[in-house]
Amino acid sequence: MKKYQLNNEQLPSFIDHLKKQGTVFAPHKKGDASFSFKKVEDPNTVILDYNRTLNSIKKYFLPPREQLLSFSKRDNSFQKGFIEKEKKIFLGVHSYDMKAVLKLDYNFTQGNPEENYLLHRKNSIFVGVSFTPDEFHFSQSVGIPVHNTEGFDIYLEKNTDGYTVKIITEKGEKLIDGFDTLGKAKDIATNYTQFKNKLKYNYNRLPEVFEQSWNAAVWEEISKKCVGCGTCNLVCPTCYCFDVEDNLDLSLQTGTRDRSWDGCMLNSFAAVAGGENFRKTLAERQRHRVYRKFKYISDITGEPWCVGCGRCTAYCTAGISIVEIVNQLCDIYEQKYLNRPAMAGLNAERL
Amino acid sequence: MSIAISEVKTQELYYPEIAEITAVKRFTDKEKWFDIKLPGGRSLGHRPGQFVQVSLFGAGEAPISITSSPTKKGNFELCVREVGMLTKLLHELEVGSTIGIRGPFGKGFDVESFKGKDILIIGGGIGIVPLRSLINYVIDNRNDYGRLIILYGAKNPNELLFPDELKQWEKNKDIEYHVTVDQGTPEWKGNTGVITTLIPGLDLDLPNTITAVVGPPIMYKFVLMSLKTKRIPDENIYLSLERRMKCGVGKCGHCQINHSYVCQDGPVYHYPELKNLQEAI
Ligand SMILES: Cc1cc2nc3c(=O)[nH]c(=O)nc-3n(C[C@H](O)[C@H](O)[C@H](O)COP(=O)(O)OP(=O)(O)OC[C@H]3O[C@@H](n4cnc5c(N)ncnc54)[C@H](O)[C@@H]3O)c2cc1C
Ligand code: SF4
Ligand code: SF4
Ligand code: FES
Questions:
Q1: Nearby residues of A79 by Cβ (< 8 Å), 6 or more positions away
Q2: Range list of β-strands (E), A49-87
Q3: Beta strands across the sheet bearing B17-26
Q4: Domain range list for chain B
Q5: Quick one: DSSP state of residue B77?
Q6: How far is CA B203 from the centre of its chain?
Q7: Is there an atom of ligand 3 within 6 Å of A52 CB?
Q8: Do A71 and B9 touch (CB under 8 A)?
Q9: Which whole-number Å values give the CA distances from A13 to A36, A111, A159, A164, in the listed order?
Q10: Inter-CA distances, B182 with B80, B185, B191, B245, Å
């Protein structure tokens, strides 16, 4: 692997170099305490040292709202939606968010490969950056260490003077073509990559836990705190459920068929006409959400579908923590099925 | 796992075909039948038990079972109960109007594997709509199948669908047709009582009888209990489930039961498979 040194003061010119090759999206400050991926206008506003963005880059491949088609009721005709195939360069992506994109790739290509997603997704380049895990990150527990470079074309590993630039793919190699001021690699990593937040079991043992957790009291317990707002679905980088709705414009004759993000925590998600709702209670809906992250798709792919970004916990208004949920299930499993007392402390590591 | 995205062949999944309503019949206060013609008179190419997404611009889409048999070439048929916005607007449409169609979707009944077997149909209320596709398929391939036994239950005689066809089934010596209503009227001469009351009296060749059940969620529990008492093996039972559906192609998540997408793996399920799904029935 080729490596170079990029010093902090070179960063703006590096971003300018990227901008010549495509539309660049990178993290920016959003309000006081939050970050957000945005199209880069001014390289000096890009922030590569951040804990997490409110939304992941999922929003570029599965937009929060997207027009599927436009129609006219006059003659019952429609026109196909239009998706621009611009070249996108994502700069400053964390390893767990990259992994989440690879998981979405799976979901949107299995069975029926969806054109909408794939048109947005093809022609993207990813430049990753390292991060310091905070109290919410736990991606290591789901198999994604800080420096996991899977999916990236280039990876920037923070060091005292700037970044070690690691060239991962040929696309990455091409991307730095013509940027001649990169220095010799120094290899002086400074990112503190230990995780404070951990699942009790490594992810490869979670399937056995979830096998036994359907009737756990935990679901009822958390449902007492949960308000069913669906925030945890919206901010999750691997949630991709959507609603489809026709919207008429003022003429009431023409309009658009749009899809928008939906969430299985919302009451109406599994309701049908005539008053039947197949997941009526918050406990059932929580269980469905968490099983989707740790069992249903995982049984098929052998990977957890949670990437440990910590968003659902950091942004939950009710203070519900996915790590606590899973760890409680591990405790119950241990007591009930392995006849061992639970270890003290939530973060005791058992691999 | 990484997927080579640039090599995946994409599919347009969400564009309907514009089809024409060529005949309409009212069966009851709530249910209407529609004959639908695809562009060029093409056949839909479905299996009994599959469904389409019916699209009305401005109102959206709704999953509706195909009620005609694939043995009928050309136009296909739908039967729709008016329950909300889209179905109300659909009921207002007349011959010559156009609607959007996507599909067919789902797995449907595995009619090939049913060959040589006796077929027991149990339909409650609007559940007869998808079952009619299977019934007519069996009638049109009569030599491939054994006995055809139909149990049909409705709330009252006024809610019975396909009245003309019911009369034919009744007359047809090759079909054992039994109907019951929860509540009779003074003119009603037939059975009264819920559909499960028709099951104990059946004389069945148990290992050789395939049972197809479609009805409202509440019906399944009771029918399955009766079938168990009757000692019909689980392997011989098929059920069709209703769920909210937005895409029909396994993406939107609305129809999901555990790991299974009803729009892909269902709506018709083999009962042994359903027993392993929580929240299914
Ligand atoms: C596989 C399948 C086959 C079906 N076959 C038939 C049939 O042959 N004949 C028939 O009359 N009905 C059938 N239904 C039920 C039919 O889809 C609903 O009655 C219809 O979607 C209601 O739409 P609405 O706008 O009139 O009702 P509303 O109550 O106004 O619908 C409100 C919202 O709920 C959604 N919704 C409500 N019920 C359902 C549902 N069951 N599935 C998906 N979305 C729903 C609608 O999309 C809409 O967004 C079937 C359902 C499924 C899943
Ligand atoms: S964000 Fe919190 S309160 Fe809202 S639905 Fe999710 S768990 Fe419940
Ligand atoms: S479930 Fe929570 S922690 Fe896991 S990927 Fe989704 S938002 Fe992140
Ligand atoms: S209807 Fe969308 S996933 Fe089944």
A1: A69, A70, A71
A2: 65-72, 77-80
A3: B60-65, B51-56, B98-105, B17-26, B31-37, B76-81
A4: 5-105, 118-240
A5: E
A6: 25
A7: no
A8: no
A9: 21, 43, 18, 16
A10: 21, 10, 9, 30
Q: Is the CB of A290 under 6 A from ligand 3?
A: no
Q: What is the pLDDT of residue A188?
A: 73
* Domain B118-240: assigned CATH number: 3.40.50.80
Chain B residue with CA closest to A113: the answer is B10
Within 203-242 of A, beta carbons closer than 8 Å to B belong to 214, 240-242
What is the pLDDT at residue A347? 46
Give mean pLDDT, residues A220-245: 97
Selection from A154, A174, A178, A158 nearest residue A166 by Cα? A154
Give the N- to C-terminal CA distance of chain A in Å, as an integer: 31
Number of A:B CB contacts under 8 A?
141
Q: In this predicted model, what pLDDT tens digit does every residue of A278-335 receive, in sequence order?
A: 999 999 999 999 999 999 999 999 999 999 999 999 999 999 999 999 999 999 998 8
Radius of gyration of chain B (CA): 19
Q: What is the largest CA-CA distance in chain B?
A: 68
Q: Nearest CA to CA, how far is B122 from chain A (Å)?
A: 21
> Is the complex ipTM more than 0.90?
yes
* Ligand 4 binding residues, C-beta < 6 A: B 245-248, 250-255, 261, 263
Answer whether A279 touches B (CB < 8 Å): yes
Residue of B nearest to A289 (CA): B258
CA distance A4 to chain B (A): 26
Tokens of A102: 């690879």
From CA B203, how far away is CA B205, in angstroms rounded?
Answer: 7
Sequence-separated contacts (24+) of B89-96 with Cβ below 8 Å: B89/B56, B89/B58, B89/B59, B90/B32, B90/B34, B90/B54, B90/B56, B90/B62, B91/B32, B93/B21, B93/B24, B93/B34, B94/B21, B94/B24, B95/B21, B95/B22, B95/B23, B95/B24, B96/B20, B96/B21
d(CA A285, ligand 2 centre) in Å: 10
pLDDT value at residue A335 = 87
Please enumerate in sequence order all residues whose Cβ is within 8 A of that of B85, keeping only pairs 6 or more positions apart, or say none. Answer: B59, B60
Nearest to B28 by CA among B129, B150, B172, B101: B129
B138-168 residue pLDDT tens: 999 999 999 999 999 999 999 999 999 999 9
Six-digit token string for B30 = 């709530």
Name which CATH class applies to B5-105.
mainly beta
* CA-based nearest distance B94→chain A, Å: 14
Enter the DSSP assignment of A343: P
Place of tokens 């639908």: B36
Is the model's pLDDT at A87 over the cut of 90? Answer: yes
